[in-house]
Design goal:
The complex is a heterodimer of chains A (279) and B (259).
Chain A (H helix, E strand, L loop, with lengths): L1 E10 L2 E11 L4 E5 L6 H8 L7 E6 L2 E2 L4 H7 E4 L11 H11 L4 H14 L15 H13 L5 E5 L7 H16 L3 E6 L2 H7 L2 E6 L2 E6 L1 H8 L2 E6 L4 E6 L2 H10 L5 E4 L2 H9 L6
Parallel strand pairs in A: 3-8, 3-9, 6-7, 7-8
Antiparallel strand pairs in A: 1-2, 1-4, 4-5, 9-10, 11-12, 11-13
Helix pairs in contact in A: 3-4, 3-5, 4-5, 8-10
Chain B lengths: L19 H13 L1 H23 L3 H37 L2 H7 L4 H31 L6 H24 L3 H18 L13 H5 L5 H13 L4 H27 L1
Classes of the chains: A alpha/beta (279), B mainly alpha (259).
The structure holds adenosine-5'-triphosphate and magnesium ion.
Adenosine-5'-triphosphate binds next to strand 2 and helix 1 of chain A.
Amino acid sequence: MIEIKGLTKNYGNLQAVSDLNLRIEQEEIFGLLGPNGAGKTTTVRMLTMLTRPAAGEAYIAGHEVQRDLARVRHAIGVVPQHMNLDQELTARENLELHGRLYKMPAAERGRRVEELLAFVELGERAGELVGRFSGGMKRRLMIARALMHRPRVLFLDEPTVGLDPQTRRRMWDLVRRMNRDGATILLTTHYIEEADALCHRVGIMDRGRLIALGSPGELKERVGRFVVEGFDGDGATYALFGTREEAVAYAGRTSGGVTIRETTLEDVFIQLTGRRVGE
Amino acid sequence: MLEAAAGKRLWVEKIYPPWLPLILAMGLVWRRRWWRFLVGGLNRPVIFLFLFAWNFKDTAAGVAYLQFLIPGLVVMAAVTASYSDLVNWFTLRRTFYRVLDEYLLAPLSINSLLAGHVLGGGGKGLVIALLVYLVSWVMTGGFCLSFLFLLQLAVIAFTFASLAVAMAMVAGGDKDVLMFTNLIVFPMTFFCGTFFPVERLPGVLGKLSWFLPLTAGTYNLRALALGGINHWSWFGESLAWLAGFYLLAYLLLNWRRQD
Ligand SMILES: Nc1ncnc2c1ncn2[C@@H]1O[C@H](COP(=O)(O)OP(=O)(O)OP(=O)(O)O)[C@@H](O)[C@H]1O
Ligand SMILES: [Mg+2]
């Protein structure tokens, strides 16, 4: 559904994204996971034609991005990282404007607006100016807006950043439902649990490069399913093992307090880069 | 919810110009606070009008000056009403609301994006300027209203709406806008033959004034208002300014899109 070949973007001397190759299948929820500045947003902006790549090409739903602008624009829906709603319009007016820009006929547009307002549970606030909405409400409205024209591919750039845990769960449910209804979803996140819980496959990005790719299970399998976490005076130590027995045996040999737990994607990231996400 | 149809358009596209939705959005916001925009656009020219009318209406020379002045005030109204609101509108939406990204994602060409804003902002300026003209007419009488008058006024309004978009593309925020407006745009509305003939300006300023974007348009509008006579050279000159500023705005918008 999305095919990326050698996508590269430089800002001056900085390689924001370098030589990215990736295939995202139809009806997949794919997560780009990486720390701040990894190049996630830049990747999304290149795929959605908001930024021109320095090299490489991308195909969405069979259309070449950059060349087949009109078709790609109708095929994709985008929720950017920052809020970009018109705060002097109401929720309903924001959706209406989007529908008009995509040339939806009035009847279809009206139906779709009400349907989506209900979907993101904003029906009762639909007549209020968006400037008065909370962060979570704005995010949900942005998702509704991206869905207005029935795109087949959705880009969600950090859809849950700044949301409380409860709202985040609801957002996950929304994403799953959209996916069940047939959308291919590319989302970015720097929340480990989010990538783990939500995505069929995850690509880990660091400093503009894709350093690992696979399902959360596969990635953890690759570094070892179990972690023995200890403390050696000036920091945490980690040791990774394929089976619980090995981990327990190792823990028995070490002195001091250790904990054994299952590997998370964070451990995968640390293993690959020597740093924590966010360091 | 999505029912994505493979590769097919899901609806028959409506046939209206792609920039129309942008004007509707402006209309929605302006309708909500129409009094503010009306007062903001009318107050300055109308205050000038009453001030001058009060002082001049008793002598023949005074009335002649009033008739000279009024087309100038109409131009002033057109410039401020099309420029000020639009530059704030677009700067706010680019730097703070960040709606520009949403527009750039939509199936909308740069030209449509620009046309929508220029027509919306300029159209509002045109309406305000006509209101000023009508108020003046009622007070002093003796003016002509013709198609060419409207056209010339529209050209002036759209010229400054284009300038507003161009400015909104380079402004870092509303402080930049305020400075440019106070330093360049407002002074210009005084020195382009609005209040007195440019020959009365000191020294070379009178000559230089003809290189400003507003002078030819103001002179032509005055000729049209007072005698119904159109000067094609002046009209052409103001049209050229419109084309120039529109092109500038187009290039800057395109530059913003490239990131
Ligand atoms: N317009 C720009 N001009 C210059 N540098 C930029 C620009 N946009 C991004 N960068 C740089 O490119 C790199 C990648 O940025 P990007 O926004 O893609 O990261 P990200 O993975 O989305 O991070 P975050 O989690 O903070 O959103 C960063 O070092 C950033 O400073
Ligand atoms: Mg980002």
